Amino acid sequence: MSSELEAVIGLEIHVQLSTRTKMFCGCELSFGDEPNVHTCPVCLAHPGVLPVPNEEAIRYALKIGMALECEIAPRSIFHRKNYFYPDNPKAYQISQYDIPLAVDGRLGDIRIHRAHLEEDAAKMIHVGDSGRIHGSGASLVDFNRGGTPLVEVVTEPDLRSAAEAAEWARLLRETVRQLDVSDVNMEEGSLRVDANVSVRPSGSEELGTKTELKNMNSFRFLERGVEAELQRQRELIEAGGTVEQETLHFDPSDGTLTSLRSKEEAHDYRYFPEPDLVPLAPTEEMLREARESLPELPAARIERYEEQMGLEAEPAKFLASDPGLGGYFEEACRVAGAEVGPGGGGVEPRVVANWITGDLTATLRQRGDEEDFADPTVSAEDLAALVLMVTEKKISHGSGKAVLAALVVEGGDPAAIVEREGLAQISDAGELESIVAAAVEANPEAAEQIKAGNQKAIGAIVGAVMKETKGRADGGEVNRLILEQLGD
């Protein structure tokens, strides 16, 4: 595979809005109901009916646009996107084209080209041998989904790897989830991702011919599908071929890519302004309400955790992924005196973060618990008390893990558990020196290796000390005493 061809990826994400009714009629939204029970003359496109925009959907779309730092158009319009397919009874979809609701935004390092409102198509259900022209199968249509309000978010082609595309899509999903405008459930189709994929010579500004991967229903499949298509395009170009613009289907069961159709251009849809709808002009009140309703979103929280609290990128992303978890972390920091960044006094926030993302998360996973940090198994106050005891060397880190395990299982007061289990750190320096001396004497081979410069051999002696003290010795002090006694 040539390293001279770089990936160029853009995403198109359809977000199903959690409104009570459809985009242009009063039919109730549903998932899993009997087919064709939520329909009316409007969403079935009977002659003479007129669409009426869903105000709640518009308000939700404004929140998404502002969360993505977009410019909100003072006046946008709906268009008819013309195509004939059984899931589209009007033979056109009401969408937005050249004057969308929101443009020129950003989420993290990725630019947002546009975010616009539109209606969803109905659901096609293929049964039997429907792939043959004269087969015995059939294609059925469930119009319950037809007319569901969507916001389509289109990025610029700023993504440079399959892994980056999947990671950014996760960030978008969590951002929308925290806006409380969609459940963004990929299994139920309320978040659907298409990827536009191309390659070009590294350093070139010119875009290559793109293909589109449609409707990938998990982030893992998105990453695998994009990686497979990048591999296909690179191999094709290296063999002297050319990439054709087309729409592809990725089959996650066997990793294959199948051509569905040639990729449509805008002119194929014959867009023109929707004559039955007036322009959309949000009022100042709607804009103010949308702006004031925005919470601190994941991207901003990640930046704050990294820049102000000194966290590394991965724990910052993990803690910012859930408002409940982020609130738990910040409360534990407050109680432990760790609200300021590195060098600001008190326990460093990264220490609290490491306990949450490491030991606490691992202990909860071992129990198979789905933790709700709005009502946590271990309170933020108890976790902070435990972190302080370890930081102040009242107990060792190993003993701290034992206390945490007890807190997860039975709750209680960390200090009381330490006293009950005899986990307090050995405070008598003479006692610890004697235990270390005995361990050195019992491990002469390791002692000689350490003297010869093999520092890894110290682990055997440290392990013996920890076994003898039942984990109550401070690891750093044990290491110091071993090296001191060996004259190193």
Total number of distinct structural domains: 3
Number of strands: 14
- Largest sheet geometry: 9 strands, mixed
Helix-strand string? EHEEEEEEEEHEEHEEEHHHHHHHHHHHH
Rg over CA atoms, rounded to whole Å, is: 30 Å
Structural class: alpha+beta
Distance between the termini: 51 Å
Instruction: Estimate the helix proportion, in percent.
Output: 25-40%
- Average of per-residue pLDDT values: 89
How many helices does DSSP assign? 15
Strand-residue fraction? 15-25%
What is the spatial order of strands in the main beta sheet?
2-5-6-9-1-10-11-12-13
Give the low-pLDDT segments: none
* Overall form: elongated
What does this structure look like?
It is a single chain. The model has no long low-confidence stretch (mean pLDDT 89). The protein has 488 residues and is α+β, with helices and mostly antiparallel strands. It has three domains: 5-292, no CATH class; 298-421, no CATH class; 429-485, Arc Repressor Mutant, subunit A. The strands form three sheets. Strands 2-5-6-9-1-10-11-12-13 form a nine-stranded mixed sheet, with helices on one face. Strands 4-3-14 form a three-stranded antiparallel sheet, with no helix packed on it. The radius of gyration is 30 Å and the shape is elongated. It has helices at 55-67, 162-179, 219-238, 284-292, 298-307, 313-320, 323-335, 349-366, 380-391, 397-410, 414-421, 429-442, 444-451, 458-469, 475-485; strands at residues 5-16, 71-72, 79-82, 92-95, 102-107, 110-119, 123-127, 138-142, 149-155, 191-201, 211-216, 246-251, 256-262, 272-273. Helix 3 links the parallel strand 11 (211-216) and strand 12 (246-251).
